[in-house]
Amino acid sequence: MSRWSEFLSPYAYRLQYQPGKHMGHADALNRCPLPLMLSAPAPSVASGVFLIDNLELPLSASDIATSTASDPLLSHVLDAVCRGWMVDSRSPEFLPFLRRCTELSVLQGCLLWGSRVVVPPTLRQLVLRRLHEDHLGIVRMKALGRGYVWWPSMDADIAGWVQRCPPCQAVWPAPPSSPPRERETPSSPWSRLHADFFSPIDGRSFLLVVDALSKWVEVIHLRSVTSAATIHALECLFSTHSLPDTLVTDNGPQFTSVEFRLYLASLGIRHALVAPYHPTSNGMVERAVRSAKESLARLSPLPWPARLCTYLRAQHSTPYATTGKTPAEVLMGRRLRTTLDRLHPHFSPLSTSLESAPRAFRVGEEVYAQNYSGEPKSLEGLQAFSSLEELILDNNLLQSDLHLPSLPHLHTLMLNKNQITELEGLLDHLAEVAPSLEFLSLLGNSACPNELVCKDKDEGDYQRYR
């Protein structure tokens, strides 16, 4: 207290006692437990009498007979069975028994329908409780009750009893939902796409995209399930198959981010989101994910890249029951070639190459010749020649005095003995040669024939050939 008095000396205060039971933080002595533990009180005689009074004993035939005799309707039916049925007894309550008049009997004061006991109204609740003590369903409870008891509205009473049972309703399965509204079939392939993620396969995540019309499936491996990775995967996909009109996804954070929405808006793609916590709204991609997982699980001995390629190759080349065609036929307009195609005898792996049409020029058409001597690379043709003017052969030198406007310089070609013999035989059968000098390629000349022009020399030193 002296310490607190020194601390509070600048203030005017008053000390007041507060009981420990009113203090939020009691001292240590008040928090100590009591040394003496009180024992539980002994059960009183009244509680034992109450338990005995509320003990439910099983029903017996005497209880049924007593309640039947005291019930006005059943006592009347019991008398009719024993004395004979009267024609005037046709009240609505009496009709169910009248229809079964030939099957009713009496045994030890109990009314029986066949081998089943007719339960009076006062005991029906107790019988229902006995039938439902194991919390059976409606169908099984009816099957159990029909083997022992009967009363006119027994089926309806059993159904109402089960529907009012709290434990049964707590674990009751959800009622069957109505079939989801089917989306309209797109008019063209790759118009509406459905996308979703699935994982894991060897600890990896994948993006699955399926076309609504062709059922073409694309599965893309993602290193990270983010909006940026999803955009990159779709960008690669759109560069191959073009842009869709609509993309249907769930409400995952990758699809609802601002980055993803801005990306689709920049491409003019409509983004459709399904109902939250309702996967059947996007049932097409959910079914495709299930098929992909099952197929990849069956191919488990292979590494995951080989499994993925095998699944996609089979999916693209297998006909669908809804379309009657393969996804490749609907999307691309052609069947994909598989190993089964090689079984057909008409299969030919060699494709006929399309030869380019020969180049032709019209008289007077403006042409350009390639200039190999410098710039510019092409020069406009100034004069057309109908044939090669002359070739001059001197020993091993082949020269020409043909002058082309685009090639003003003259060149000399060295020929060996074999080439000279071939040239002599060729010139004997040559009537007219085009200015391109294409026949010089037969002599093993690697230079461009259009470059072969010769310097002017004395005509007396050479033997001319025409």
Structural notes for this entry:
With 466 residues, the protein is of the alpha+beta class. Among the domains are: 61-168, Endonuclease III, domain 1; 192-296, Nucleotidyltransferase, domain 5 (2-Layer Sandwich); 380-465, no CATH class. The protein is 33% helix and 14% strand. The strands form four sheets. A five-stranded mixed beta sheet has the order 7-6-5-8-9, with helices on both faces. Strands 1-2-3-4 form a four-stranded mixed beta sheet. A four-stranded antiparallel beta sheet has the order 14-13-12-15, with no helix packed on it. A hairpin with a 2-residue loop joins strand 1 (104-107) and strand 2 (110-113). GO terms for molecular function: nucleic acid binding. Residues 185-335 form the Integrase catalytic domain.
The order of strands across the largest sheet is 7-6-5-8-9
| CATH topology descriptor of the domain at 61-168 | Endonuclease III, domain 1
N→C terminal distance = 140 Å
Uncertain regions spanning at least 5 consecutive residues: 50-55, 384-415, 430-466
Give a short account of the largest sheet: 5 strands, mixed
Text of the CATH class of the domain at 61-168: Mainly Alpha
State the secondary-structure class.
alpha+beta
Q: How would you state the average pLDDT, rounded? A: 77
Number of strands: 15
